[in-house]
Amino acid sequence: MSVVVMILPKVLEDARILENVKVGPGIFRMLVESPRVAGEALPGQFVQLRLLSGDFLLRRPLGIAERSSDLEGFSLFYRVVGRGTETLSHLAAGETVNLLGPLGNGFSRNYSHPLLVGGGLGLSPLLSVAEYYGDRAEVLMGGKTAGELFWQDFYKPFTEQIHITTDDGSLGEKGFTTALLPKLLEKGSYDGILVCGPEIMMRGVAEIAERHGIPCEVSLEKRMACGLGACLSCVIDTADGTRKKVCKDGPVFSAQEVFFS
Amino acid sequence: MKNLDAQQKKKLLSLELLGIKMNTPILTGSGTFGFGEEFADFVDLSEIGGVVVKGTTLKPRRGNDGIRITETPSGMLNCIGLENPGVEVFLKETLPRIARYHMNVIVNISGTTVEDYGELARRLDVPGVAAIEVNISCPNVKEGGIVFGTDPKLAASVTRMVKSSTKKPVIVKLSPNITDISCMAKAVEEAGADAVSLINTLMGMQIDTRTWRPVLGNVTGGLSGPCVKPVAVRMVYEAAQAVKIPVIGMGGIMNAQDAVEFFLAGASAVAVGTANFADPSVIGKIADDLAAYLSLHHLKNITELTGKLKLD
């Protein structure tokens, strides 16, 4: 018996902004209308967003966060860090951006009790994973202070099992996610750890996961031009010495493949 | 503008260049379009003039470390460093795999010695390859590359070596990082080049003012995109004045109007590069709009536009 794999063509279209509001310190959430991307997106995939005004040439890769309940659109989170994201933050509902996606591979979808570990903007693509797994998933999120953990409100519709750390102890347990993680692993029965956040955090989590013998997947971020595997801007080194493309071979990799050699 | 049907479009845009039948005079810029297949969702690959594939070297190359691209106002800098699987993998795996798209495959080659270029040309003299583009202008590799592109004598010896190693048409890709493009174009023409293509990227640099460090891993990189177009049009104009062989023009083409400038300046065909990153379907749109432009100006075929710049 042969298995027929349907690969849908990627979507390239103008999409209306439904909402674009500040949700945290320097962080915005944009809701865009795109039934096609929302309908096809797998947890952990991303889009390449193009600004249609200004002298910007390159697209911005942004993780797909949660999809709207009617599947008419999806949300993106971004931090204002440069001219592009600054311009993006000034766009109003009703204006248009151009989307290319969904791109990349996404996280595995066959765990029964995964732990999602995220920090900063890494919590954006992980939200799509929470949406997929629902209350089968637990979440461990870290931030500098309580103000950075507005993310809870976005995760709660999907799972109530949220563990929190802050560097200053203003919310949850004081310290990094990697300090709380071993304790969670002793109690929990996770069969997978799915991580997205700063690289130092992902490496720390991956090492702990390795010690506990739990499969660990990480979602990487790199500057990209095409997002289609053509320009080779976003390559990374892997454990076996070869180079892979974050846009096409990733953005999700097994931690062993990219962090251990 | 009136809508043209496929047949009218083909009549307006098709041409034969270097003995290659092309449906449009629009090629892709090497390094911006992978091996074509990456863009199959957005472009009918058989309908474009040709796909100039990623620069190929004798041995596989890992490319540069660190950050490889950065955006600049109306442009971008890159320092990929010719990452590619090498000619053997290209011939064994890539070429047979992309045959199903029925496109004109033009292979861009890069070497560190004159002999490298000869061997690459010899090995690529196979069915399925329409032409060779000789890259003597990559600014991002330490040995070879641009060294050959900045010295007319070396450029000529690379050209002679490639010409004597293949029966395929040979296009030599020129660097803009020189003072006199006419001299370089003439040198490769005299050495037997069948066409020249220009411009490759302009060498540039960006510095992070917070860290005082270069943004790119390779310190410097190649500038491309709309910001280089005026330089490119000027150089195509000068090169076209200097040589009798066809000139393939490129540098910052984002739309049909941009392409028209290159034809008027003397280009027989154009290549679209960086624009593919902004809009992966852009090549099809440029072809449609170029056909409409020709029709509007009562021209029967694209060849009638080449070199029609008015100076009086």
Low-pLDDT parts of chain A are none
Q: What's the pLDDT, averaged over the residues of chain A? A: 94
Please outline the major beta sheet of chain B. 8 strands, parallel
User: Portion of residues in helices of chain A?
Assistant: 10-25%
Q: Determine the mean pLDDT of chain B.
A: 95
| CA-CA gap between termini of chain B | 29 Å
Strand order of the largest sheet of chain B: 3-16-15-10-9-8-7-4
Instruction: Find the count of extended strands of chain B (DSSP E, 2+ residues).
Output: 16
Number of DSSP E strands of chain A: 15
Shape of chain B: globular
Q: Biggest sheet of chain A, open or closed, and with what strands and sense? A: 7 strands, mixed
Strand content of chain B: 15-25%
User: Which oligomeric state applies?
Assistant: heterodimer
Number of distinct helices of chain B: 10
> Largest interface, counted with CB-CB under 8 A?
A-B, 25 and 33 residues
Sketch the topology of chain A as an H/E string, one letter per element.
Answer: EEHEEEHEEHEHEEHEHEEEEH
